[in-house]
Amino acid sequence: MLGLAVVAQVGFSVTEQGIPALTGFIKTDLSVSAAVAGLIVACFPLGRIGGSYAAGIAADRFGERRVLLAGGIAGGALTVLAASAPVIALCGLFLLAGAASAAATPAGGRMVLAAFPPHRHGLALGARQTGIPLGGLVATAALPSIAHAAGWRWALVFAGLLTVAFVLPLLRVALEPAELAQGSGPSPRRDRDVRLITLWGSLVVVGQYSLLAFLALDVHEATGRSLASASLLVVVAQAAGIAGRLL
After folding, report:
1. H helices of the chain, where?
2. Fewer Cβ neighbours under 10 Å: the N or C end of the chain?
């Protein structure tokens, strides 16, 4: 179960973290400012914000694996579709793809929690979360090179197809009736600790997405290195993220 959850998360993260890695290529190809390119890229996580709560409800109601499959296939397909879209449609498709990809966190986390005893939850979730920088490492190592050789739109196609491919192993696992049981208790929205953790997590992600979207672009503009070679610094950051999550 942990392996399936990690593999699925890698697939989701290839698009989630790969799209910011293409910021410099989008900026150059569309002849827009870094701010506008950042706004285009930000449509994907904005969609995730809108879809996260619904994804959590769906995971409780329909089961984690169903939600992961549906979210991965829909998110990957929408990313592939975005590759041929003009700018306005591109932003809309990024929003929808992000909303579909929101399934990764609540459904993937819930699947791991259900498979491990409480005294192993920290390590199990830490291992599962390595799928985020692993997917980001794949994306930042491969997508800028593809974008440099064939254009960022082909890099999007590659990312979307990988997302679909990495959630398909979930089809081999039988769905258990227990998956469909709904949770009980007070609404998380009324829990003060949940609200504070959400605020803290949002601040952490500000740094994460700033690094993903602008590190390679800044190095490219400051030193004249190609965007593909500048992206290797992001690969190093992703590798450190894998070790940090396990620790």
Report:
1. 2-16, 18-21, 23-30, 34-62, 64-82, 87-101, 104-115, 121-129, 131-150, 152-167, 192-223, 227-230, 232-246
2. C
